[in-house]
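Contributing new records

If you add data, match the layout below exactly. Sequence lines come first and carry their own label; structure lines follow with theirs. Keep one chain per record. Anything else will be rejected by the validation script.
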Amino acid sequence: MQYFQHIIIGLRQMFNKIKNSFNLIKNMGGRYIAFRSKYEILRKTGLLKKRFPVNTPDTTFFTLEQWKSHGGAFFFNSKEELTFSKQPSAILGGRFADYQNGKMFFFNSLEFNIGRNYDWVTNPDSGFKYDITKHWTEIADYSKEAGDIKFVWEKSRFSFLYDIIRYDYHFEADCSKMVFDEILSWIDSNPVNRGPNYRCSQEISLRVLNWTFALYYYKNSPALSAAVFHKIQHAIYWQIHHVYHNINFSRIAVRNNHAITETLTLYLAGVMFPFVDDFKKWGLKGKKWFQEEIAYQIYPDGTFLQFSMNYHRVVVQLLTWGIRLAELNNQKYSDVVYDRARQSLKFLRVCMDDATGWLPNYGANDGALFFKLNDSHYRDYRCQLNALANVLNIDAGIETVTEDNWWYGGVQKAIQVINLNASTYTFTIGGYYIIREKDTITLLRCGNHKDRPSQADNLHLDVWYKGRNIFIDGGSYKYNTDTETLKYFMGTQSHNTVMVNGHDQMLKGSRFIWYDWTQCINAEVKETDDAYTFTGTIAAFTYINKDITHTRTVIKYKHQPHWVIKDELNGLPDNSRCEQLWHFFNSEADNIQIQANINGELVNSEKSHTEYSELYAQKQQITQLKFNFVASITTTVNLIEK
């Protein structure tokens, strides 16, 4: 009997693997599967390595004088050209002092003391040191021993240069030698196509863009000698070479903000360094691919295929660079780029809390903010949205003229205005439904997935009141941590929605893979004299039973911090147990009155503590409230005035 049980278990496991494989093919498409399979074969056989040479000859691709005379137009021509007012803030002075003392803020929030002689390949979180002699194709993205590779990539993307350059400008210092010493240190420590810092083409692209910003700022500095420039131009060439020859990985296997970053960098390399024949050729293709990625990844309603507020802001910054630099160099994109930029701006602005500039902590969030040109908090989106609005000649309803605008070339006169006078906004393609009033923002996600979701969070409800995020999204924490932590932050449990028998809405695969994607069946928002009512239905938990649906109705009473939420599930297997989950800060516990009932009878709640990650690689304790029910539950929420 035991023998036959083992056979049955084995057959069941085999069946599930086959089923999940077909599910993956259905979700991701045959092109993705074929590319990933071929790519892995090339990598494991060493054939991929041949595309990316090491021990590259010491070639001069372009000289300092050639670049100074014939380089493309940038946001500014040099440090000396900038004339906007200097504001030497204590925040900026403190960050610069930290840098001088060997401290650095990773992911725009987490401080590490890495010293002034950092080797560029040691993970400060795990202490693991990568082997710099290994070809990048032999470096693993995910390793328990190495820890999260993003800790190694963080300084190597050179976003920290903006603190130094801004300090240089506002405090009237000369930090040019400091900046070029850092760049040369990286070049000397990272041989071409070796080690972890050549593993990701997006990180390479960001490094080139940030070096380019520094080159233009210090164009007239004595520290930028012909010898220094020679080393930098050599490194720039081979990094762009790497991005171009690995571009299909991001365009087919990844297809998210990585592909937008890399294709834009290829285009801008041709614009900034037009006298390099390879850059001109790769730049033309980069522009074509960038337009295609924008058209595909940003949906016509302005929402973004990664279903992440922060990754959408990443794209906003890339659009700001791309549109402004094309304009300065008398070039244009296809109309779809400008349209999707405008629609993106509107979507994110509608989701933004006016009092703080913050957006919901919704979707994957790795702390990315590549071009930070201000002193504002990482969660404050106003600076980046205002910069894109300025480039597009749009009034986004953001009163403060932020420093970013001046770095990108000054303030332009707005010829369009984003209408924020409505009370309800629907973004049906991405699946976002927002109710905006003077004191409240009510945001629901009820979406289809033609592109892969990273979190199992459909029908999540986010509530803001007077600048406070009341019902919160759990965040992301880390992309490389233990399985249970990954499951919590990426899964349904960290969101304000419903679980069935403790299961996620979708079946978890490895890393960023989900099977049995949730899909929206219908959704709408209606207005009456005294309330707004959202109703949405999704197909979810279909790996438990293919006929399960979840309908959520949210009534928001006008001009009151008062909501009624009803969850109904159909198609459940017998003896199923459902859980309605709510997450809020411990400090808000006394400000929230929440009651649930089933068929008119009150239901007791289960209160516990769980985790919240507002900033990447950091987490804190918050309150989770859970109501158990069978198929239907109605919850009433009132917020108490502070």
